């Protein structure tokens, strides 16, 4: 739990509303599966109650020593996953730019050939016997997280006849309230598949797409070992009105 | 130009995709040995206070087909209406209750299932009491941004009738989409993403 300074109200206020023109809408027909999975009626809006501003908390003791190392966390002893070795790092911040410490970040991906380790996956690219594809971190006091992995490959999928996903890593992030819950995908700088992808293009605003593209970060490369990519994640901020936190009876 | 507000934009959502289990419930999809157990599988223990219930159901798409690749997380108060963790300013929640669960739909039948307790009532911002409810968050292939809904309890008709959120809904005919069906200790809550029976989803 974060310590609060004497003049810092505890962050228990309502969240800033989501900008649903920035997020992808539910109904995006060129991503075909969305057609029958998109609600047709309007969402009902209401200001947050305690049910939305509270959320689960996970302790650092959840995390095992290899949880953030996908190169070895599924590998046989002494072996390693095959592929381009990279470090992915960044910070979880809120919309006010404040670090979000102590929250769980989970990530998953295909192997270097674009093959997922999943029983419903039918792509002919080979599994890597030393690669599982999952990892997790809890953010540090400054909101930072990092993990080591191999760069995932592009991946064909049955949408259009010849649709391929760009290389991507899925992210799941918790904040301090259930209304902050977010799943997204990180893409890699310079990938020519980005422009073609129906899932990327569920997002209308080009600036929002860019917010999902991790730049190559040579300043955090480990020489002769692994290159680095930076991916910051922004969660919803909370309203800061101190009176919000001083309700009678609460 | 006035001073800028200096707000950042929230990271945009993307679908969880069909292989969400790899990251969130790896043991469920046979990736074993990385995590001891899948997170969110166990919500209660012997010492947890409250009435044990099973919450189960399926998620249906607009054709009436159950989703076999969806994943649900729930968040709820303890038996006395307090939320675990530091962000409930009232504190005092049951230390033997997590309040949070995660369950993938069954890969064949689409059924999800949580073993939990019935939550107590939680105040609305103006102090009125909400009816007992469980918050749901639904992600899946084809869902671009996680969907939020709530489960209410059929035996709580008086509390439901005065619930500050349910009461203010214009289309009262849709309220039953948020109320589970109860048999013994089992509450069945089916979620319809689209169509005439469409579940109410919230922008929270």
TrEMBL record, chain A:
Q: Which domain of life is it from?
A: Bacteria
Q: Which family does it belong to?
A: Belongs to the intradiol ring-cleavage dioxygenase family.
Q: Which organism is it from?
A: Devosia enhydra
- What Pfam families does the record point to? Dioxygenase_C, PCDO_beta_N
Name-wise, this protein is Protocatechuate 3,4-dioxygenase beta subunit
Q: Which GO terms describe its biological process?
A: 3,4-dihydroxybenzoate catabolic process
Keywords tagged on the record: Dioxygenase, Oxidoreductase
Q: Region annotation Disordered: residue ranges?
A: 1-21
Q: Where is the Intradiol ring-cleavage dioxygenases domain?
A: 88-116
Cite the PROSITE patterns for this sequence: INTRADIOL_DIOXYGENAS
Gene Ontology molecular function terms on file: ferric iron binding; protocatechuate 3,4-dioxygenase activity
Name the InterPro entries for this protein: Intradiol_dOase_C, Intradiol_dOase_core, Intradiol_RC_Dioxygenase, PCDO_beta_N, Protocat_dOase_b
KW Repeat (keyword) present:
no
- Keyword Oxidoreductase annotated: yes
Automatic annotation (TrEMBL), chain B:
Domain called Intradiol ring-cleavage dioxygenases: residue spans: 55-83
Signal peptide from the UniProt entry: none
**A single MF term (Gene Ontology):** ferric iron binding
Q: Which domain of life is it from?
A: Bacteria
- Keywords of the record: Dioxygenase, Oxidoreductase
Q: Which residues cross the membrane?
A: none
Which Gene3D superfamilies does this chain map to?
Aromatic compound dioxygenase
Does this entry carry the keyword Oxidoreductase? yes
Cite the PANTHER family for this sequence. Answer: DIOXYGENASE, PUTATIVE (AFU_ORTHOLOGUE AFUA_2G02910)-RELATED (PTHR33711), PROTOCATECHUATE 3,4-DIOXYGENASE ALPHA CHAIN (PTHR33711:SF9)
The UniProt entry's sequence similarity note says: Belongs to the intradiol ring-cleavage dioxygenase family.
The protein, known as = Protocatechuate 3,4-dioxygenase alpha subunit
**Where does this protein come from, organism-wise?**
Devosia enhydra
Its organism's taxonomic lineage begins at: Bacteria, Pseudomonadati, Pseudomonadota, Alphaproteobacteria, Hyphomicrobiales
């Amino acid at each position: 739990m974060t310590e609060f300074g004497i003049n810092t109200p505890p962050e228990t206020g309502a969240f800033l509303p989501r900008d649903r023109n920035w997020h992808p809408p539910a109904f995006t027909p060129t991503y075909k599966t969305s057609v029958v999975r998109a609600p047709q009626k309007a969402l009902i809006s209401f200001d947050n109650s305690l049910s939305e501003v509270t959320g689960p908390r996970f302790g650092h003791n959840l995390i095992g020593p290899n949880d953030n190392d996908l190169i070895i966390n599924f590998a046989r002893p002494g072996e390693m996953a095959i592929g381009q070795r990279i470090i992915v790092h960044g910070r979880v911040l809120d919309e006010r730019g404040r670090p979000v410490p102590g929250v769980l970040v989970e990530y998953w991906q295909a192997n270097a050939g674009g093959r997922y380790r999943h029983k419903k996956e039918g792509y002919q690219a080979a599994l890597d016997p030393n690669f599982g594809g999952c990892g997790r971190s809890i953010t540090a006091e400054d909101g930072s997280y990092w993990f080591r992995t191999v760069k995932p490959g592009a991946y064909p999928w049955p949408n259009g006849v010849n649709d391929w996903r760009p290389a991507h890593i899925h992210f799941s992030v918790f904040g301090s309230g259930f209304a902050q819950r977010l799943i997204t995908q990180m893409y890699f700088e310079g990938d020519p598949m980005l422009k073609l992808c129906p899932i990327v293009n569920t997002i209308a605003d080009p600036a929002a797409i860019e917010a999902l593209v991790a730049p190559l970060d040579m300043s955090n490369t480990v020489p002769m070992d692994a290159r680095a990519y930076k991916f910051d994640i922004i969660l919803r901020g909370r309203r800061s009105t101190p009176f919000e936190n001083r309700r009678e009876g609460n | 130009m006035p001073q800028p507000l200096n707000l950042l934009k929230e990271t945009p959502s993307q679908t969880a995709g069909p292989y969400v289990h790899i990251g969130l419930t790896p043991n469920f999809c046979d990736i074993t040995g990385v995590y001891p157990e899948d997170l969110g599988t166990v919500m209660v223990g012997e010492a947890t206070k409250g009435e044990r219930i099973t919450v189960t159901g399926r998620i249906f798409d607009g054709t009436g087909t159950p989703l076999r690749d969806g994943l649900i997380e729930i968040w709820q108060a303890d038996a006395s209406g307090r939320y675990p963790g530091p962000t409930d300013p009232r504190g005092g929640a049951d230390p033997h209750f997590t309040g949070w669960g995660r369950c993938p739909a069954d890969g064949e039948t689409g059924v999800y299932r949580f073993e939990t307790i019935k939550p107590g009532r939680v105040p609305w911002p103006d102090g009125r009491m909400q009816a007992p409810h469980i918050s749901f968050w639904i992600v899946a292939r084809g869902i671009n941004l996680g969907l939020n809904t709530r489960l209410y309890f059929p035996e709580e008709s008086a509390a439901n009738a005065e619930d500050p959120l349910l009461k203010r809904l214009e289309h009262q005919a849709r309220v039953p989409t948020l109320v589970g069906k109860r048999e013994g200790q089992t509450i069945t809550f089916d979620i319809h993403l689209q169509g005439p029976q469409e579940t109410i989803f919230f922008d929270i």
